[in-house]
Amino acid sequence: MRRIQHLRERFAIDPETHTRLALVALVLLILIVFTGSAVRLTGSGLGCPTWPRCTESSLYTELSTHGVIEFGNRVLTFLVSAGAIAAALGSFLRRPVDMVRRDLAWLGVLLPIGVVTQAVIGGLSVLYKLAPGWVMVHYVVSMLILIAAFSLWWRSRMEPEAIAEIRSDRTVVFAMRALVVWALGAIALGTASTAAGPHAGASRTGELVRRLDFWGGETLRNLIHTHGYLAAALGVGTVACWWLARRRGARAELVRTLTITALLLAAQGVLGILQYQLELPSEIVWLHVAVATLTWVGYVHVWAAAGSPTASPAGSSGHDRVRESLA
User: What's the predicted TM-score (pTM) here?
Assistant: First the structure.
């Protein structure tokens, strides 16, 4: 134990350095979502047809465009892993080293675990020839990892006492949390829409990839329309939450984050309509996925910025609280 303590003191870093490491990890985890989407939308998903090797006989790719694209994404995973490990270690090496913050330690450990989990899911996606279920899980798990990555960066900037003081009206807090859950549902349905669409992920490598077809020929159309309705409701809910936050005197960070997130969601709406009208060109679909990822980070920020609900006034009845919430 003394040796471990000595090593921690020797390699200790200041909180500002840890925050920068956490930010780098967050950016890399967002970046690999962008590149992973590019792999799929360029039809290069089976440019390396097996896993963990690229081919049956080599760790490396053949000199082909789609092989290089897929292999490049795999190489980026090592850089992302390094960033995640650095941020995780920083949670334990942060000064003062004799007082490890549990919140940062848990969040930090989740990052390398998440990266390894994603690597395994990605490998299974390849082994199962990009079966839609595996590809959908791959993207959704990426969004869950971004929760931990953002939370680590956001919390690393503040002391625990300052975080505990971040509070909002109970109605505001629960409305924001419901909004975030709704956003995750919209993202999940969006992955289903993609899994039924023409971008199977291996169109340029000659591989036949199964698509979702539980509604027959109407599967893609029905999923797109359902996703559109869900996203439209999310937009209305986001504007309503923005109005509620302003009316309830919420913190400036929350109102500002809601504003930016609402604008990103509006851009998503435009891209969604455009890609549908143009019959899903891969370039616009990629932008749609990229903006969706940034929008999700915005919703995660909304949850954090809302903080914890304020305590109900002592002695107030449930009827009084409902009446106050409607005032």
Answer: 0.86
